[in-house]
Amino acid sequence: MTRFQQGDDFVAFYGLKTDAELRGPVGQKIRADCDMRGLISKDDPPVFLNTDQPGGEVANRGHLLHHPKHALAIRDRCREVGVPAVANLPGLGIAPGKDDPANMAEFFFKHLKVSSAPKKPTARLLGTAKRK
User: Fold this and answer.
1) Which residues contact 107 (CB under 8 A, 6 or more apart)?
2) Regions of the chain short of the pLDDT cut 70
3) Which of 16, 46, 54, 128 would be 84's cystine partner, CB 3.0–4.6 Å?
4) What total of structural domains would you count in the chain?
5) Do 46 and 30 sit in the same domain of this protein?
6) Are the beta carbons of 96 and 86 closer than 8 angstroms?
7) Do residues 19 and 71 share a domain?
8) What are residue 86's phi and psi, to 5 degrees?
9) CA 127 to CA 83: how far, in whole Å?
10) C-alpha span between 12 and 20 (Å, rounded)
């Protein structure tokens, strides 16, 4: 554990006041509701994971929450249960596979079954064109 996982605010992070509450039934339920790995199931939609955070030692709370190893754990769990997952984690040297969408836009186009970005609406379509 890093110093950012424990500390004076660890219990308060979950909206509780004591370690006993955190370890008791209420705390267990709250933590289960926050456990992304535990919430992933085979009927979930495909997942695209992307973070430009560096790998290595955790530098602060934001880095802890968005560390590429966190995203890697989510990708691995998705693969365990059969959820399609694509990861772009440059901090760990992980890029989408050659047959995977290269970025989030391509991922959405693929899974929402659209061929390209919609055209920008024209003034006429927006109802702002001058009338004759």
Assistant:
1) 46, 48, 86, 101
2) 1-8, 116-132
3) 46
4) 2
5) no
6) yes
7) no
8) -120, 135
9) 43
10) 12
Residues 24 and 47 grouped into a single domain: no
Domain shared by 28 and 55, yes or no:
no
Residue 12 structural domain: 1-34
Res 78: pLDDT:
98
Domain identity same for 87 and 48: yes
In a domain, 74, yes or no: yes
Cα–Cα distance for residue pair 13/5, rounded to 1 Å: 10
Q: Given this model, what pLDDT does residue 88 score?
A: 97
End-to-end CA distance of the chain: 70
CA 94 to chain centroid, in Å, comes to 15
pLDDT score at 98: 95
Same domain, yes or no: 10 and 53: no
Provide the 3-class DSSP secondary structure of residue 103. coil
pTM: predicted TM-score of the whole model, two decimal places:
0.73
Candidates 77, 68, 59, 120; CA nearest to 95 is 68
What is d(CA 84, CA 132) in angstroms, rounded to the nearest whole number? 53
Q: Are residues 101 and 51 in the same domain?
A: yes
The amino acid sitting at 29 is: K
